[in-house]
Write a structure and sequence with these properties.
This protein has a single domain, classed as 3-Layer(aba) Sandwich (Bit1), CATH 3.40.1490. 40% of the residues lie in helices and 24% in strands. The chain has a four-stranded mixed beta sheet, with helices on both faces. The two termini are 25 Å apart. The radius of gyration is 14 Å and the shape is globular. It is α+β, with helices and mostly antiparallel strands. The relative contact order is 0.29.
């Protein structure tokens, strides 16, 4: 999509736990839950601008639940909209397992200030 002049660079980040070793399909579903849920919590104007400019998303890995929760809190402290996904446990993992976090969409630089050092999944 073509960037609209005056628009800020926006993106959304999904943090996925590496230690769960989720099957590809399960990981994809969990990331989709995080993406949608975080967008629901975000400002409608930002979501519209983000969608009009390609809805950039990046999936990053965190080591475990402790690191997931650390970055969730950092994102909240920075004023970013977040969504913590907890699995229902109907397939391959235990009910209540915290699998991933969605952050944004929001200003790319602001999100990078929280997650910029994490590796791509």
């Amino acid at each position: 999509m073509k960037k609209i002049p005056g628009d800020q660079e926006l993106k959304q980040v999904i943090l996925l736990r590496k230690d769960l070793n989720l099957p590809v399909g399960k990981a994809g579903a969990q990331c989709a839950h995080a993406s949608v849920e975080a967008a629901f919590y975000s400002d409608k104007k930002i979501v519209e601008q983000w969608r009009n400019n390609g809805a950039k998303k990046v999936v990053l890995k965190v080591a475990d639940e402790k690191e997931l929760l650390k970055y969730l809190q950092l994102a909240k402290d920075y004023g970013l909209k977040t969504a913590l996904i907890t699995d229902a446990g109907k397939t391959v993992i235990t009910p209540g397992t915290k699998t991933c976090v969605g952050i944004g969409p929001d200003d790319e630089e602001k999100i990078d200030g929280v997650t910029g050092e994490l590796p791509i999944y």
